[in-house]
Amino acid sequence: NTCEECHVLIGTESKDLSYKEKHWHERCFGCSSCKITLVDQPFGFKHDRLYCAECHDENFAARCDSCNKVFKAGSKKLEWRDQAFHEDCFCCTVCRVPIGTKAFVPKDDKPYCTTCYEDRFATRCSTCNKVISAGGVTYRGQPFHRECFTCT
Prior knowledge:
Layout: E1 16-19, E2 22-25, E3 43-46, E4 49-52, H1 53-60, E5 77-80, E6 83-86, E7 104-107, E8 110-113, H2 114-121, E9 137-139, E10 142-144
Antiparallel strand pairs: 1-2, 3-4, 5-6, 7-8, 9-10
């Protein structure tokens, strides 16, 4: 077999390392980017080239749309509106607290935690000023809880 890296025949004096029907001398089996040996190391293979795990991630892995860092193996990736986020990077537009996998309310293509959404946008009762979450009555353009709407 001929080595993919140096194009010299692999003789009996060297180990023949192979991956996907390609062959390398043991000394030539290294990362295409940083050149470290990949013998007994995790590696990736992209565009017919070998990469150590770190260079593979740096060059080809998906990145968070908030912090631009790579999604490491085993980390959670949240997707919303064709964007991907680390769990700690998907935050409320107002308070910047991570939403993670908790409930949120989208408004104008921005995520809001339920508390900030209610503070900014929810309909409030004209009598008690608390959020009207269900039902309610509107009288002369003003919203009321059913129990707060009384005739005087």
